[in-house]
Specification:
With 397 residues, the chain is of the alpha/beta class. It is 39% helix and 14% strand. It has 2 domains: 249 residues, Type I PLP-dependent aspartate aminotransferase-like (Major domain) (Aspartate Aminotransferase, domain 2, 3-Layer(aba) Sandwich), CATH 3.40.640.10; 106 residues, Alpha-Beta Complex (Aspartate Aminotransferase, domain 1), CATH 3.90.1150. It contains 14 helices and 15 strands. Bound molecules: pyridoxal-5'-phosphate (PLP).
Length: 397
């Protein structure tokens, strides 16, 4: 059994805060402070340029990739770290389209995160080959998978509602029609059990600053299925994805396997912070995590629905259809969320009216959920959100 009181001690959380936004930015793992300080002082400070060899900086992108791989069912050597998720989406989609050159349709859904759709739109324009980005409702994806589709690009867990796609079933259906799949695991990795190998996913991508707690701007990851690893062309053909970066050859030749998806110089300090964050996961059984995440989510829904009829559940009621977050729709959701944050209950708001709460058993317990429910009840039933200072929208919501 995973000891969640122990994992909780591994995080710094400000006093008086119930943090229900680990689905957007995980909190600080205590060990990351010393780890990054050490990397700055002993590695950067003392080793200077020799750190690339002596401290293993150049290997970090794949070593950390292997550790993330273990959380998503990817074998060693199939995941690499770097860049941002938007860039990894672009590379995966570009590779997929090239592996399916006679088809022109990219299938996605209206629940996908905008940047994934934007990256696809930009790629379609750059290619100039008449690709069509077809966006359908989430429950119409299966019916739209056909022989004209080149790539199926989906986010497994909907960032707004927490609705979950069946990755294995949709991938199987896609493969039956010769469609290549790209799965965005931004709200899956560290949130629910994921097995890209069992599901047969062709490409998978994700970020590490949400449920994996790597810190703001932590690097993204990309998985390429072994069957494509030697054929995929990474689109962004940077020198660190070259077969021999230090040959300084003017001609690009892709590195073997997933390492070709690397682009430029890796973010070493961010990778050191991420390593400390991943140490926590060595103590976690993901099945325990899922069970506890469901328990917390169910408790929250029951409490909020009973106490605040004005809030309407916007997530699937069935826990098995839901990721690790719960969303409620409320007309004054933005102001209500600001009022909650002012009282130490931190969630976030997604336009037009979604109040979003993440449930992260690594550092959240039932008593946190009950405290959050008390404060939500107070804010909603007493209209405490109805104040001008809660109405002005900040840059990040
Ligand atoms: C969070 C998130 C992103 C963010 O992309 P970045 O490039 O890291 O800013 C992209 N896609 C999905 C599905 C997300 O949830």
């Amino acid at each position: 059994m995973t000891d969640f009181t122990k994992t909780r001690e591994m995080f710094h959380l400000p006093k008086g805060v119930v943090y229900l936004d680990g689905n957007s930015l995980g909190p600080l793992p205590r060990a990351a402070v010393a780890r990054v300080t050490r990397a700055m002082q002993d590695e950067w400070g003392e080793m200077l340029i020799t750190g690339w060899n002596r401290a293993g900086w150049m290997r970090l992108a794949r070593d950390v990739g292997d550790r993330v791989g273990r959380l998503i069912g990817a074998p060693a050597g199939t995941v690499v770290m770097g860049d941002t998720l938007s860039i990894k989406v672009y590379q995966a989609l570009a590779s997929a389209l090239e592996l399916n050159p006679d088809r022109r349709v990219i299938l996605s859904d209206s629940g996908n995160f905008p940047t994934d759709l934007y990256m696809a739109q930009g790629l379609v324009e750059s290619l100039g080959r008449g690709h069509d980005l077809r966006i359908v409702a989430p429950d119409e994806v299966a019916a739209n998978i056909g022989d004209e589709v080149a790539a199926l690009m989906l986010t497994e867990v909907d960032y707004r509602t927490g609705r979950m796609h069946d990755m294995a079933a949709l991938t199987a259906r896609a493969h039956a029609h010769g469609v290549i799949t790209i799965w965005d695991l931004a709200h899956s990795a560290g949130a629910i059990p994921v097995d890209v190998t069992a599901a047969g996913a062709d490409f998978a991508v994700g970020c590490t600053y949400k449920y994996l707690n790597g810190g703001p701007g932590a690097p993204a990851f990309i998985y390429v299925a072994p069957k494509w690893a030697e054929r995929a062309r990474p689109a962004l053909s940077g020198w660190l994805g070259h077969e021999a970066p230090f040959a300084f050859d003017p001609d690009y030749r892709p590195a073997p396997g997933v390492e070709r998806m690397r682009v430029g110089t890796p973010p070493v300090l961010a990778l050191r912070a991420l390593e400390a964050a991943l140490d926590v996961w060595d103590m976690v059984d993901i099945a325990d995590l899922r069970a506890q995440s469901i328990a917390l989510g169910e408790l929250f829904i029951a409490q909020v629905e009973r106490r605040c009829p004005a809030l309407r559940l916007a997530s699937p009621r069935d826990a098995l259809q839901r990721g690790s977050q719960v969303s409620f729709a409320f007309e004054h959701g933005y102001a209500a969320m600001q009022a909650l944050i002012a009282r130490g209950v931190i969630g976030d708001f997604r336009a037009p009216d979604i109040m979003r709460f993440g449930f992260t058993p690594l550092y959240l317990s039932e008593s946190d959920v009950m405290r959050a429910a008390d404060i939500i009840e107070d804010v909603i039933t007493n209209n405490l959100w109805d104040r001008p200072e809660y109405m002005t929208k900040a840059e990040v919501t």
